[in-house]
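Got a spare moment? Tell me how you read both lines of this record:
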Amino acid sequence: MRHGKKVNHLGRKAAHRKSMLANMACSLIEHKRINTTVAKAKALKQFVEPLITKSKTENNQTVEKGTHNRRIVFKSLRDKYAVTELFGSVAEKVADRPGGYTRIIKLGNRLGDNADMAMIELVDFNEIYNAGKPKKQKSTRRGRSKKADDTTAVVEETAKAESAKAEEPKVEEPKAEKKADDAQE
């Protein structure tokens, strides 16, 4: 029985498995999508999603905490270019996503050995799939009161009115009158 055994060993020793997952995670971060077997994709998803969460929290923390997160991620990935990419563009894209950073799409069976193949990709980097979907507003479990919504609407309207006043061109009528008076004389 396999009660409580959550790690898929993938037919490899621990050191080989850790190296393989680190290499696959670096490739995923660099290329934003990779093709692999379904079993490896599921293992990679469990490996890489906590690392992406750590990269995302750097922007909200102090410098010491951000450095600590970089070191923890580097311990797993062992590639400074992948860590830089992860903490740069990837963390920027997934900043507002509360989890579920990767997607596994099954592709069918491989011709040579009939293995189940899949494509694993970073969700926010697929512009074709996400193009038609509008961004959702963040929602909370508790409903916001109407009073709070009304005050924000009033504040937004006053801000719009002030910006419209600032953008209006000032009319310079007195100069035009002076020119007309000069022409009459």
Observations:
- The helical segments are 14-31, 38-56, 63-77, 80-93, 127-130, 146-167, 173-184.
- The two ends are 109 Å apart (CA to CA).
